[in-house]
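Allow me, if you will, to draw on your knowledge of protein folds for a short while. The matter concerns a single protein, recorded as an amino acid sequence and a row of backbone structure tokens. Could you please explain, in whatever detail you think fit, how the structure tokens follow from the sequence? I remain grateful for any guidance, and I place the record below:

…
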Amino acid sequence: MPAGTRRIEVSYRASGADARTVVDLGLRGPAGLRGWSGGSRSTIWVSALGATPGYLSGPVEPGPWAVLLGVPNIRAGRTDTVDVTVRFFTDDLPAGQAIAGRGPGWFVGDLHAHSGHSDGRVRSRRGAATGTPPYMVAEAARAAGLDFLALTDHNTASHWLDIDRLQPYYDDLLLLRGREVTTYRGHANTVGERTFHEFRLPAPDSSPAALLAPIAGGGAFVSINHPALPDGEACMGCGWNVTEPAVMRSVHGVEVVNGDTAEGLLAGWAFWARMLSAGHRLTAVGGSDEHTVDDDADRRLGRPATVVWAEALSESAIVDGLKRGRAYVRVRGPQGPTLDFHAEHDGVRVEMGEEAPAGGTLTLVATVGGAAGQTLQWIADGAVVAASAASAASLRLDQPATPGRWFSLVVRDASGPTLISSAIHIRR
């Protein structure tokens, strides 16, 4: 096996199915049997962080490995062939699965939820406090009408195996491998990691730059969580106070709304606005930070919800959509207002999250659905510059395309915001 191998994949193909020839498959590692799938699977994989059902996850140790073949049936006088392919990978996990037949389009989900693999808690069948089984979080997401759910337990990757095992059953709900990288300088969510990365700072006052860079470099979407929360005994390390360039280069988004909160706790939006004005192109996202899925009096999954344009309902496509910034937040849940927000510049359409050239006039165009009686606020560089009645008819606003400017939208009713958009940027 090549040096640096972290995942082994075995696939095989046998002739003679028409004559009832059956060939079974298994895998043995240096320490013994790693699994057996018989004739039920044509491809299997194992790594330290996961494995095909029927196989044991665990380190891919150096030493002799063997593909095991059994022949429970072959008719007398027949000769059949078996082709076996073994592949070696340097990441721990294969690409996440996709929900067939979905996309392209807008998909709604929750990017911040916890199970019993960290501090998610529910009542057991007999009423005792216990860790939340991951399937209960998936059930709550399905009941809320979500298209996708990121399970983001603190620092660990142990829940990724549950996600891989649950996904085939939840063939109408995309389960994303996520993690809340929880440091004493702030918390950051990741979506789409395929290799486990360090979360520990070398010292309490160290910068998290060295932690975030390999996560972002590995392709995951990285977002700052609840940046304006107080940092103290009530929520240790929750506030985010590290914005040096080395850190922000590895960040793709900011959680502008955390939980089912009142407007006074939307300070994450103010942090996001400051970062945009400082030149960082960051996607606005939201997450429920759900810890107790069986308690409707507490936070509820999907409040807020993040809506993402993606080419397909798959982990890679959702991650790509988030990185591109074509996303907005429904503050009060999955059934909130809908939005189409783009700009026009010299006859070219600029989508939310994209950058327009500087110079001339930029025309902002917004179409809002399901927001009767609400107000659309046009935001430029963090300040409200105009307001309109939210309408399914296209609303337009001209603005100077000055270098470095950015524009976004907030839809609100008498109780506060119901929708927050990501931004359109002018090249600096």
The chain is about 10% helix and 40% strand. The chain has a mean pLDDT of 95. The longest helix spans residues 267-277.
